[in-house]
Write a structure and sequence with these properties.
The protein is built from twelve helices and six strands. The protein is mainly alpha-helical. The protein folds into two domains: 2-56 and 185-278, no CATH class; 65-179, Hypothetical protein, domain 2 (Endonuclease III, domain 1, Orthogonal Bundle).
């Protein structure tokens, strides 16, 4: 048997047929019901519905690679999206994201990142200004000194990894955004939770030790669904991030008690880890489950 759903576009209905809930997307992972968040069938339907409706998640931010690098470095763990984007616009308005005359100095970047910014009618300060000024300067110097490879997402990701402050997640984020790449994945806590609930990540893996293995499992899952990894990653992040109450309830229901407690403990540890300047930008994340 198959599952059927409809995507409505004005007076037109686009009918969609997916495998039965019991069929497997990848080994050991059933499709589940289309209308049951967050099953594989749910994700496949949402990606396709957004395609039909022209509302696919847009993720590129910058007009140049330097701008995209800056946008991703200024965001990430510990910084809200609105603050990160405000800092991006702030630097761009002051001409500090252009490399036409060489890389902006760390001092110039720090001066502007330390200046209060306007956000939704209020004045805000950017956290980690000193750290991010150093990281941005290092990244810009690399971009000035050597052309970045843009043949594949992995090539660009691997080229970015030696830059101070850029770990696998940030490098993959830049590569996905700039190249619209489907050969990398941005694995943050929201994607890890989706994998935990959907069963497409092996238990006991960690981002810091097993990033590439987790990435391969995510890419295989996207292929099994028949959707682009870049679309799936962006949509999954958006929905998981905006449904955190539901997600936490599902985690408590579906995880064994010890694993659920470990999940909560890991989240507290993420918030209370050493200050960001004492570590790389984005590689310390929680275990999926013990």
């Amino acid at each position: 048997m198959t599952q059927h759903a409809a995507i409505f576009l004005g007076h037109t209905a686009v009918h969609l047929e997916l495998p039965s809930a019991a069929n497997e997307v990848v080994a050991g992972v059933p499709w589940g019901a289309i209308d049951a968040f967050p099953t594989p069938a749910y994700w496949a339907f949402q990606v396709m519905a957004r395609r039909v409706n022209g509302t696919s998640v847009r993720y590129r931010i910058g007009n140049t690679l330097a701008e995209e690098v800056a946008a991703c470095l200024l965001g990430g763990h510990g910084i809200s999206a609105s603050i990160g984007l405000a800092a991006f616009r702030h630097l761009k308005q002051h001409g500090l994201l252009s490399l036409e005359r060489g890389a902006p100095t760390e001092a110039d970047l720090l001066a502007k990142l330390s200046t209060p910014m306007e956000l939704e009618g209020r004045s805000v300060l950017y956290r980690f200004a000193k750290q991010k000024a150093r990281y941005l300067n290092a990244a810009f110097n690399r971009l000035v000194q050597e052309p970045a490879p843009t043949g594949t997402g992995r090539q660009l990701r691997d080229w970015l990894l030696p830059v101070q402050g850029i770990g696998p997640k940030t490098a993959s984020w830049i590569a996905r955004n700039w190249l619209d790449a489907d050969d990398v994945a941005i694995l943050d806590i929201h994607i890890l939770r989706a994998g935990m609930l959907g069963g497409f990540f092996d238990q006991g893996l960690t981002v810091e030790r097993d990033y590439l293995k987790l990435e391969q499992q995510f890419l295989a899952f996207a292929r099994g669904l028949g959707v682009r990894a870049s679309e799936l990653d962006a949509l999954m992040w958006l929905e998981m991030a905006s449904s955190q109450t539901t997600v936490h309830e599902l985690l408590r229901e579906r995880l064994p008690a010890p694993a659920a407690k470990q999940q909560t403990r890991n989240q507290r540890q993420i918030k209370s880890r050493a200050p960001a300047h004492q570590r790389r930008a984005d590689t310390r994340q929680a275990r999926l489950v013990d």
